[in-house]
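FW: tagging you since you asked about this chain on Friday. Here's the raw sequence from the shared folder, copied in full. Didn't touch anything.
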Amino acid sequence: MPFKPAGDGNTLAAAAVGVVLAGGASRRMGSDKARLILGGASLAAAAAVRLAAVCSEVAMADGGRGVLAGLPSLPDGPGSGPAAGILGAAAAYPDRPLLVLACDLPRVPVALLAELVRTPISDWTVPRWRGGIEPLCALYGPVSLAALAEQVGRGLLAPHRLAEDGRLTVRFLDGDRLARFGPPEEVFLNLNTPEELERYASTSAGTSPQRPQGQISRRKSKR
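HL: got it, structure written out here
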């Protein structure tokens, strides 16, 4: 599958690795979300294309399942859930910032991803709105990745808990700066169930959900 690397000269964008989080068990969906086809492409492939518009390298944090041919398939790191996928990518790309996007966030636009890698540089750059923060669409610098590994070692598996770490320089993308990309409740629409998938497809012209072919992987992760 062809991907067009970022070419805007942004040095942070060039250094950042785009990471598609696609390692979940998809229990509520009933089938592998990463392989669901919408608009002619799988959710994982669509996320990879958007990241490739910003980052020169893109990889799949899919627990080593080989979800998308042509891209590195990364094993999980410590812990479980999204943190395991993020830490697996951190191990594969040491000392590199990671621009993370969950495959089940189909409406996050390229422009928002590009904004996350714009200066000023911080340890962690993450969208925030009244619905909370969005750690599965965020830029993780090496310091925040080390903090996440430490947090997971203490049994705290939720990446959003990084916001509580006073040692980190956190830049929130919020307020009017976030709203210009669209209503956050739409931008961060999360597809977890067949009903949510059908609603999304019904409001997206020319798309209809298709189930993946073949054996569905059943993993213990709750991503």
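FW: Strands lie at 17-21, 37-38, 41-42, 57-61, 73-74, 98-102, 124-129, 132-133, 137-140, 170-173.
HL: agreed, and Residues 81-92 form the longest helix (12 residues).
FW: great, closing this out.
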